[in-house]
Amino acid sequence: MLQYTIRRFISVIPVMFIVSVIVFLLVHLTPGNPAYLILGEDSSQESIKQLEQQLGLDKPIVVQFFDWIKNILTGDLGQSIYSSEPVTQVIFDRFGPTFSLMLLSLIFILVISIPIAIFVVAMRKTILDPIFLTISLLGVSIPEFWFAILLVLAFGVTFPIFPVAGYAPIAEGVFSWLYYLILPAFVLAAVEVGLIARMLRDGMLESINQDYTRTVRAKGVRESTVLMKHVFANALIPTTTVVGTAVAGLLGGTVIIETLFTIPGIGQLLIDSIYRRDYPVIQGVVLIISAIYVLINLLVDLLYAFLDPRIRYD
Amino acid sequence: MLEVNDLKVHLDTDSGIVKAVDGVSFTVEAGKTIGIVGESGSGKSVLAMSLTQLNPQPPAFYPQGEILFEGKNVLKRTKKDLRKIRGNDIAMIFQDPMSSLNPVFNIGDQIKEAIRTHDKKMSRQDVEKKVIELLTDVGIPDPKRRINDYPHQFSGGMRQRVLIAIALACKPKLLIADEPTTALDVTIQAQILELMKDIQKKYGTAIIIITHDLGVVANIADKILVMYAGRIVEEGSVHDIFYRTSMPYTWSLLRSLPRLDIDESERLLTIKGQPPDLIHPPEGCKFNPRCPFVSPECLKMDPPLTERGSNHRAACILSNEQFEEAKQALIIAERKGVHS
């Protein structure tokens, strides 16, 4: 297990290196002179020169790259052009809302999809199964921004139970934190619930006819235990992969949802920075998002080994 | 102890009703071993599963017959009663040990589950002790250490031993072994059969062993049932079946066994044709399309089992004497065919 963990950790290094190259090139592949783009059309030749110097754009590209890597490794992602604050600080300030949103979404996903999947499998011989399949397909196909607007209309306007937009940090109390987050987190979760419940159902239906399930039944174990212990444990293995990609997908979803619900998170920061042409922040955010993405996949791999002894002991 | 009377088990499939078991009767006495022999698709596995109603329903259903276990009809039991029988009174082991253990739980837990399901009061230490005892009984070396290992860390033969340990966990009165050695190496097969014999001596369990291999049951069974197309076509002692064969199908099965005492130039005999379609079985005797001794009468009627000696019965219109003559004639004809 330890060896497996170490191997997985080492495999992250080349991935992150490639990611950093791409993020670095982001500025350099953008057509035109970044300094010019940042400052706008009316800027003087002098101020462009000055900004180029400030950004280090006048040095050879290889030198620039190694400077950038060196800075990342020391935790320095540069300075925001817009606010002159360190990029790390800017991102750190916006991290709380995004993390809260993702965490609550993940909880929603698991709490909704697991019981649904078990219930549908238990009722697999009834009309419920085709109904479930239709709804899950619908859930996967609905664009999240449309679903978000629909929910806001329903629970924010027609029945004003939840606020339409905004955010309260957890420091102001769990209740108001939840109060603002429930609607956006639910929207974010909705798309993934259909997919994950479907994966879990398929996994369970496959496991339910396996030889080992027959062995368990032959022991005289009750059917509910057969389903929730043996069948479920085996279905979790393929589902974990999808949960991993789903969580990573939530990151992308936050960009839309944060904009819609005006939540001051990373996603909104990214959008704002793009409008402001704040390249260091854009680079920083993209780098952080990629790092989280890689980290989640690493976690999934480790979780995998935890769930499946065949991987653990390889 | 177990009495099966005129049992039918049919499967309702998209292409029609499969008459997998079609009127089967037999009895199993305590502590005895019976072998059920037949080709793939003869209905023997469906029969085995139906004894504890393990076949998924649907597609399986029971249009006729009864399964009396200690006097009570298994088919009329509630789900709860059935669970009490499964594993506790009647245990099963299956064909493929490689896939019959849950890959995500260690074998100790899987054996413990078998004990715990039927005895919730036993203390943790006692359960642990029992598991180690069982693993020792089935011949797993170093059981204290291996108890925490996962199925993939065991070989096929060792997994079958673990499955036998699971089956024995509650000292069942009857052990049903569905092709227990088919997926194993020949040397391991012999070990597993030997183990089953030892187990029977120690635990006094009755055994139903289901196989397509007459060689497997020859050493172990007190009685052999030969199944064809969902029916029993011959039943008797090992001696009856091997030396006083009264049914052409049994005879063909015996002739298709590889033998060491016969000249190697002789080809291994096969039974021509395919096992019958159980949705639309042939008219008359089900074996008639493949029978070397078929006569017009065989197409008209399906012969019932008739007495051929004490506790020896067979389903064929030929009497023992007629069958003997026909066999000799066929063998002579074959020899001529080979030499000319």
From TrEMBL, chain A:
The keyword Disulfide bond does not apply. One of its GO terms (molecular function) is dipeptide transmembrane transporter activity. Its main location: membrane. The chain crosses the membrane at residues 9-29, 99-122, 131-157, 177-197, 231-261, 281-307. InterPro entries: BPD_transp_1_N, MetI-like, MetI-like_sf. It holds the Pfam family BPD_transp_1. GO terms for cellular component: plasma membrane. Keywords: Cell membrane, Membrane, Transmembrane, Transmembrane helix, Transport. Signal peptide: none annotated. It is a multi-pass membrane protein. Residues 95-304 form the ABC transmembrane type-1 domain. PROSITE patterns: ABC_TM1. It is found in: Cell membrane. SUPFAM superfamilies: MetI-like. PANTHER family: DIPEPTIDE TRANSPORT SYSTEM PERMEASE PROTEIN DPPB-RELATED. Belongs to the binding-protein-dependent transport system permease family. This is ABC transporter permease. The lineage of its organism: Bacteria, Bacillati, Bacillota, Bacilli, Bacillales.
